[in-house]
Design a protein that fits this description.
alpha/beta, TIM Barrel, Lyase, Ornithine Decarboxylase, Chain A, domain 1, 8-stranded parallel beta sheet, binds pyridoxal-5'-phosphate
Length: 392
């Protein structure tokens, strides 16, 4: 039986991840370092990323209770100590009881926690909560005005089962700009909200404060506070071109960020198509000359964007090979006429480096008219993810 791969796979570089952690430790010290593992760890794979991050990262942030419980199960299986884990997404009363038992903290972001308080009392468990303040994003969270108008009283009344361990907020406009004026307004609103929590809900003055995602952690030092919540940049990517520009100015030099992910696929078929042949659905491409093609068993089902049709290239033997015709559900067809010397099977790099050439997530995202955050999180959860050491 053959064991050669017949499907695409993702590679995570342990070395690149360690570089990014070290970069954030150096840049944002003395703040603690949090890693955001939502969206299947930005497509990298929750547990595969956890295997690189556990023991190196101070706090983990996830959206769903299921993700938090998966972290606890992994720790149990691998005999590792409990890391600090915070569910930043929506939770219900039942989730909260289970999370309290597993020593996972949750975010309180709106009124309507009374079911949870009742459930916690019945179960006899104590829940650690971080209060989310809406300081100008218009998404989840209490406003300082709402807290002042009475919403803060809830936390005072539920102290028997709820401990307010932290206060957080999230920036609306740090990535698309090089001036951080709106972010500074949000920081001021944050401090106002915390003052109300202190006076109206008995929240302690040294409650854990956290606000900054990747961009703010890099370019807005006053936002770093007690912990930074780093998502995209822990995977080695800049949040935006503007953030990269700002970082050079604010930090004096560009900190090292190394992309963690590569995506590779073995060819299913390599063959010649005679001049005049059509390629793919809709016959959108026609070979001008005899063309050696590689059929790659990967497509938009796996997360390779269909909008990249007609623009994309992959790398074979260190050479760019155009994707010809449309991206299909389970197939790509690429022109390898000049990349290979014979009709032997090839391994194509969809994302990452091959020799002198490199395809970045940003490049694929530009082809697909979207942002790298979306391209990453659309990588299929079914794809095999392997950690490689990737020696320097
Ligand atoms: C997604 C998210 C982050 C991380 O954002 P990046 O730009 O990927 O660093 C941080 N905090 C919250 C609340 C988030 O939703």
């Amino acid at each position: 039986m053959s064991t050669s791969p017949v499907a695409s796979w993702l590679e995570l570089s342990a070395r690149a991840y360690a570089t990014n952690v070290a970069t954030f430790r150096a840049v944002t010290a003395p703040s603690r370092i949090g890693a955001v593992l939502k969206g299947n760890a930005y497509g990298h794979g929750l547990l595969e990323t956890l295997s690189l991050a556990h023991g190196e990262i101070d706090v983990f942030y996830v959206i769903t209770p299921a993700e938090a419980l998966a972290i606890r199960a992994w720790e149990h299986q691998n005999k590792r100590a409990h890391a600090e884990v915070l569910v930043i997404g929506a939770v219900n009363a039942e989730d909260c009881v289970e999370l309290a038992r597993q020593h996972v903290s949750v975010v309180a972001a709106a009124r309507g926690f009374s079911d949870t308080v009742n459930a916690l009392r019945t179960a006899g468990v104590q829940l650690e909560v971080h209060v989310h303040l809406d300081t100008g994003l218009g998404r989840e969270g209490f406003t300082a005005a709402g807290l002042r108008a009475g919403e803060a009283d809830f936390f005072a009344l539920a102290q028997d089962v709820i401990t307010v361990k932290g206060v957080l907020s999230h920036f609306a406009n740090t990535e698309d700009v090089t001036e951080q004026d709106y972010a500074r307004t949000q920081l001021a609103n944050f401090e106002a909200g915390i003052r109300v929590l202190q006076t109206r809900a008995g929240v302690s003055g040294d409650v854990q404060r956290h606000f900054a995602a990747s961009a703010a952690a890099l370019v807005l030092p006053p936002s770093r506070l007690d912990v930074v919540r780093v998502g995209i940049s822990m995977y080695g990517l800049w949040p935006s071109a503007e953030t990269r520009l700002s970082a050079r100015v604010v930090l004096g030099s560009l900190p090292a960020l190394e992309p963690v992910l590569s995506w590779k696929v073995p060819s299913q078929v390599v063959k010649w198509l005679p001049a005049g042949s059509y390629v793919g659905y809709g016959c959108t491409y026609r070979c001008a000359a005899d063309t050696r093609v590689a059929v790659l068993p990967v497509g938009y089902w796996d997360g390779y964007p269909r909008l990249a049709s007609g623009k994309a290239h992959v790398l074979v033997h260190g050479k760019r090979c155009p994707v010809i015709g449309r991206v299909m559900m389970n197939h790509l067809i690429v022109d390898v006429t000049h990349a290979t010397k014979d009709d032997q099977p090839v391994i194509a790099t969809l994302l990452g480096r091959d020799g002198e050439e490199h395809v970045s997530v940003e490049t694929i995202s530009t082809w697909a008219q979207t942002i790298h955050y979306e391209t990453l999180t659309r990588l299929g959860p079914h794809l095999r993810r392997v950690v490689v050491q990737d020696s320097p």
